[in-house]
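User: My instructor asked us to take a sequence, write out its structure as tokens, and then describe one feature of it. I'm not sure where to start. Here is the sequence I was given:
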Amino acid sequence: MSKLLDPKILMAIKDLSLSAKMTIDGFMNGINKSTVKGAGLEFSQYRSYQPGDDLRSLDWKVFARSDRYYIRESEVETNIALRILIDASASMSHSDGDFSKIDYARYLTASLAYLASLQGDAVGLYVLKSAGIYAMAAKQDYQHLSRLFYQLEQIKAEGHFTKPIHYTELFASTQKRELLIFVTDLYQTNDEIIKLLDTLSTLRHEIVVFHVLARNELELDFKGYSTFEDLETGETIQIDQEKARQRYKSKLATYLAETRAKMLDRRIFYRTISTHEPLDEALRDFLKQRSKLRI
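Assistant: Let's start with the prediction itself. The structure tokens for your sequence are:
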């Protein structure tokens, strides 16, 4: 199934809803062997039926598929409201090969939304653009999910990161604690994204940050290029990649370590994710981490 979860194959499908279904169906095929426990966005652990087990814990859907008896452990109904925030500034249009960081963000978001919907959780979408924030309040129904997929397809990465004056939509929600998932490349000039996360943290929501990077960014491997342009400011710089690569990787490693430390200080789950990485790996790590937080 890992080939089907390769971003290149998924993004060739074009239909976000179909791609999300393939991703999650493939992911769920292997989740039964996982040790992830919990509810909502966290799958329970399955184990074989043993004499004396409570028959009410049998999962009859799994039996119908496998003709074997399995017990679903630690299942607790705790539906949550999930809000997915997408950074749609120009830097997210950076590409490596046939697709960009914003493409990867679309498919990751679609997969998370589909997974949440299967679990009965309400899902909302917030697209952070330079002109403001497009907001879809969290709901739980099929029509809402279809509209969410449609809006994901309309996203264009352009302009600068959203100004604080437009943040009102992010705070216009119920008093109930929510799960916020922020998909971004963390490109910032004055710590504006960190400041936003600080503000969101005061609301006591659980926050997850997926830091999306292209492989050519991680490796400084832009074949045939010596002049580079900042997608948000238009500034250019000339680089000898061969000479700069070792120093670049060292500085990048320091930056990523510092960023991780900042997130840990704020009790934010943080994960770097490369655009060539299979989506199910990011999903599995995310669900395992959420399980640890609730033990």
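For the description part of your assignment, you could build on this observation: Confidence is low (pLDDT under 50) at residues 31-39. Try explaining in your own words what that tells you about the chain.
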